[in-house]
């Protein structure tokens, strides 16, 4: 993998010498960005998928993410169900929660939603129409999971595409 080199303002000021180090950085940095090198800005598309309750990593160094979630829940008499997208910065505890849906007794629901989340602020925008803030979003999330539960059947799938820019703001 090609190393990413930060180019200082003094290296590109008028009258600054054109050095081989600067020229190598100008040549190598675009490749390092595309390869996702350490310290390089994150712009390359990355996809991470997971099924219901699977803990997925890979959000390190990204500023936001685009999530496509699909879930199904069914409840019997006296039952309830919920679909929640959760975020963590350690892979063990998931304080950041975005409740997608809840259902009550004797109900069935199946949905697909698209959600853009800004990791710095927790702000989100959902294709199904709502905007808001993920509750208790951890600093620099590294993991996520989709948890779908009910008393008569539940399933879920999530496709995450982390990105480098601010997501919802």
Short description:
The protein has 169 residues and is mostly beta strands.
Write the layout of secondary structure elements.
Elements (H helix, E strand, L loop, with lengths): L19 H16 L12 E4 L4 E2 L6 E11 L6 E8 L7 E8 L4 E11 L4 E4 L4 E3 L9 E8 L3 E10 L6
Name some characteristics of this structure.
169 residues; single chain; Jelly Rolls; 2 domains; mainly beta; 6-stranded antiparallel sheet
* Oligomer classification: single chain
Calculate the mean pLDDT score and round it: 90
CATH topology of the largest domain: Jelly Rolls
Beta-strand segment tally: 10
Q: Indicate the radius of gyration in whole angstroms.
A: 21 Å
Topology as H/E string?
A: HEEEEEEEEEE
Low-confidence stretches: 165-169
Helix percentage range: under 10%
> What's the end-to-end separation, in Å?
32 Å
Q: What is the strand content?
A: 35-45%
Query: What is the CATH level 1 assignment of the largest domain?
Result: Mainly Beta
Tally of discrete structural domains:
2
Q: Do you know the CATH architecture of the largest domain?
A: Sandwich
Number of helices: 1
Largest sheet at a glance? 6 strands, antiparallel
Structural class: mainly beta
Shape: elongated
Lateral strand order in the biggest sheet: 1-10-3-6-7-8
């Amino acid at each position: 993998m090609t190393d990413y080199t930060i180019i200082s303002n003094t290296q590109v000021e008028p009258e600054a010498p054109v050095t081989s180090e600067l020229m190598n950085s100008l040549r190598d940095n675009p490749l390092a960005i595309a390869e996702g090198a350490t310290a390089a800005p994150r712009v390359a598309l990355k996809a991470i998928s997971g099924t219901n309750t699977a803990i997925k990593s890979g959000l390190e160094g990204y500023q936001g993410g685009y999530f496509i979630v699909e879930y199904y829940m069914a409840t019997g008499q006296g039952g309830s169900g919920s679909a929640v997208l959760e975020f963590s910065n350690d892979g063990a505890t998931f304080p950041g929660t975005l409740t997608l849906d809840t259902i009550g007794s004797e109900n069935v629901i199946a949905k697909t939603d698209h959600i853009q989340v800004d990791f710095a602020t927790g702000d989100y925008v959902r294709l199904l129409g709502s905007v808001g803030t993920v509750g208790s979003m951890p600093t620099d999330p590294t993991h996520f999971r989709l948890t779908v539960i009910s008393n008569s059947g539940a399933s879920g799938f999530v496709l995450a595409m982390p990105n480098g820019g601010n997501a919802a703001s």
